[in-house]
Amino acid sequence: MARTTDYSSIAWGNPEKTGAAFDFRSDVVTTPSRATLAAIACATLNDDVYNEDTTTAEFENDMAARCGHEAAAFVITGTMANQLALRSLLYQPPHSILTDAHSHIIHWEAGAASFLSGAAIQAVRPVNGRHLTLDDIRKHAIWTDDVHKCPTRVISLENTTSGNIIPLSDMRMIKAWADDRGILVHLDGARLWEAVGTGAGTLRDFAQCAHLTTLDFSKNLAAPMGAMVVGSRRAITALKRIRKGLGGGMRQAGILAAAARQSVFEHFGGGIVCTQPHLIKSHLMAQRVAQAWTNRGGRLLRDAETNMVWLDLNASAVDINSWNSIGKKHGIMLNGKRVVTHHQLCEAAFSLLDVVMDEALDLVRYGSNEERVRKTKL
Ligand SMILES: *Cc1c(COP(=O)(O)O)cnc(C)c1O
C-alpha cells in the first residue's frame, strides 16, 4: 500500500529535529536542507578517480575560478584539505611551518603535520591578540642559511582565525614578503566564507594571497561533509596523487560534491562575494550573544567579528563544567568559553542562553541556588 511521506520525520532541512537549532558548540552542527537532498539526487554518478564525474569536476572548476586559481581538488574534510595542502607544499625535511599558536593545524588535526610531512611547527602568538601580521612573521620566520635553524618553508594562515578576520592588506603584505624569500603560503580558509561575508574582501582577493587555499563546506554552509583545496594545476595534480595514496580518492564523489555545491549556493551564493543573508545573520547573532554577556558585566577574550564569541568565563569565575551543564539542563548545547553562532539557531535558543548566563553568574555570586533564594529574600 502506498504511503505518503511524513516530511515532519525527515531530518533534512529540520534543524529543530537534528538539534542544530539549540546547539552553540560549533557551526559544524548545521545540517543540510531538503534542496541539498534533491541536489544529491540530481548528481552524476561517474568515477572521480577516473576523472569522469561531471558534477565533481564542475564544482572543482567553479571553486577554482571563483578563487582565481587554475585547479581544485574536492576532499572529504577540512583536515584532509589542510594536510594535503601542507604535504604538497613541503618538499624535504628539515622544514617548518610557521603558524598562529591557536591554529587548527596545531590543535585539531591530530599532529598530522609532523607525521605526514615531517614538519616542525613554529607556533607564533600574534602580538595584536587577534591574528598574525607581517611583523610577527618577520620576527619568527627562518630564511637564512644558519644550519642550527629549521627553515620556514610554509606560512600557514587561518582566516578567519578563532572568528577574527585577517585583513586583506595584512594578507597581501605577508604574501609579497614570503614570495620574495621563496616561502610558500597556505591559507586555511575553513571559515573564509565568514570573512568574505563581512565584506572584508572577495574569495578571489583572499585566495590570491596563498599558493594553496582550503575551503570547508561543513561549517556555517551546512553541507553534510566536504572541503576543497584550490591552487595551481601543477600543485593540485601533485596533491591528487597524495590524496589517492591516503585513501581519499572517491568513486561516485558527485553525491557529496552536489551536496557541497548546493550548500555554497544556498548559504553563500554563486559568485566571489556573499549574496545570501545567512552568514551575516549569524554574525548579528554573535553580536547579540556578546552584548548579552557584557551587559551582565562579563568580559570577552576576543572581538566578535564574525560568528564566534569568546567569553572570559574565568574573569567572571564561572566554572566551565557548570556552564556546560547549566546549558544542558535548559536544553542548549554549550562548549565552554567559545560560543559559535550559525544560521540554524532558533530564537528560543537565545532566550535559553540568557537564562543560562543569569544562572551561571548567580551561582558564582551566591554559591548555590538555595543561597541565592535566601539572599534575594533578605
Ligand atoms: C573546521 C576547521 C577545519 C577542518 O575541520 P574538519 O572537521 O576536518 O572539516 C580546518 N581549519 C579550521 C580553522 C576549521 O575551523
Automatic annotation (TrEMBL):
Positions of post-translational N6-(pyridoxal phosphate)lysine modification: K219
Q: Name one GO molecular function term.
A: L-allo-threonine aldolase activity
Q: A biological process (GO) annotation for this entry? A: glycine biosynthetic process
Supply the Pfam families for this chain.
Answer: Beta_elim_lyase
Q: What keywords is this UniProt entry annotated with?
A: Lyase, Pyridoxal phosphate
Q: What's the cofactor?
A: pyridoxal 5'-phosphate
Q: Which domain of life is it from?
A: Eukaryota
Which InterPro entries does this entry report, sorted A to Z? ArAA_b-elim_lyase/Thr_aldolase, Low_specificity_L-TA-like, PyrdxlP-dep_Trfase, PyrdxlP-dep_Trfase_major, PyrdxlP-dep_Trfase_small
- Aromatic amino acid beta-eliminating lyase/threonine aldolase domain: residues covered: 23-314
Annotated Gene Ontology cellular component terms: cytosol
Q: Which family does it belong to?
A: Belongs to the threonine aldolase family.
Which protein is depicted?
Beta-eliminating lyase
> What organism is recorded for this protein?
Microdochium trichocladiopsis
